[in-house]
Structure formats: C-alpha cells, structure tokens
Amino acid sequence: MNLNVSANGLAGLKVMVIDDSKTIRRTAETLLKKEGCDVLTAVDGFEALAKISDQKPAIIFVDIMMPRLDGYQTCALIKNNPLFRSTPVIMLSSKDGLFDKARGRIVGAEQYLTKPFTRDELLGAIHRHVGAAA
C-alpha cells in the first residue's frame, strides 16, 4: 500500500464524521480538510443516516457514545444497507476496551480509534480502508 500519496491524493474524497462532540467534529474536519477531503459532519446517527444516503461518503468515522442512536446502532444500520455495506466504518471512542473493540467488529466496523486520535491515525485509517482514494 502506498502511503506516499501526492499532495492531492485525498482531494475530493468524501469523509463523514459522526460525533456529538463539537470539538471532535471540528478537529477531524480541520485535519481532513487540510488534506483536501470533502468533509461531512453529523451530530448523531439519525442526522448521519439521512446525509449518508444523499452524499455517499467513501469512509465514515462514528463515535460510539452518542444520544438517540449510538455508534454501534449507527454502524449496524449502515452495514445492513446493501448500498453501503462496503463503505468502511471506523469507530471512535474515548474508551480503549477490548469489549468495545469486539462489539465494533460484530456490527461490522473496519477499525477502532481511541480518542483523542492523531492526524496520522485518522489519515492512516483512510489510507488503509480507502486505498489512498485511488
């Protein structure tokens, strides 16, 4: 896998960040926009599901602990839709528990990042699951 992506390697890549924390959404959005990504954000799973069907992001980052629809439920709903079954979903959590990681795998998440995540972790997940958008 080539991680030496050209300067516009992620340009136009649609990335969704679902988190009820404005700080996390803003941090991820800033990091990803610097890389040229087209960033979509949502406060919870309900808002995200409507945007996902309209915008069709290439990869989705979802927080686990959210009101109304948590990250596990959101991921399961995304993965149960045939149109989005192959869309990579990366779980975000402030907990680094084995149980949480296992539960994430059960609902179909591709990866699990512990918050606070770094720029390299965020970009690494994109490169790993979207193949450098190539």
Structure in words:
By secondary structure, this protein is an alpha/beta fold. The protein contains five helices and five strands; from the N terminus they run βαβαβαβαβα. It has a single domain (14-133), classed as Rossmann fold, CATH 3.40.50.2300. A five-stranded parallel β-sheet has the order 2-1-3-4-5, with helices on both faces. It is globular. The protein starts with 13 loop residues before the first strand and ends with a helix.
Topology:
Elements: E1 14-18, H1 22-34, E2 38-42, H2 45-55, E3 59-63, H3 71-80, E4 89-93, H4 98-106, E5 111-114, H5 119-130
Parallel strand pairs: 1-2, 1-3, 3-4, 4-5
Helix pairs in contact: 2-3
The largest sheet is: 5 strands, parallel
Strand content: 15-25%
What's the tally of helices?
5
* The CATH superfamily title: Response regulator
What is the CATH class designation?
Alpha Beta
Q: How many strand elements?
A: 5
Give me the CATH fold name. Rossmann fold
CATH architecture: 3-Layer(aba) Sandwich
Choose one word for the global shape: globular
Rg calc = 14 Å
Q: Output the strand order for the largest sheet.
A: 2-1-3-4-5
Supply the number of structural domains.
Answer: 1
**Element-by-element helix/strand order:** EHEHEHEHEH
Q: Report, as a whole number of angstroms, the end-to-end distance.
A: 11 Å
Helix content: 40-55%
Question: Which spans have pLDDT < 50 for at least 5 consecutive residues?
Answer: 1-7
Mean pLDDT: 90
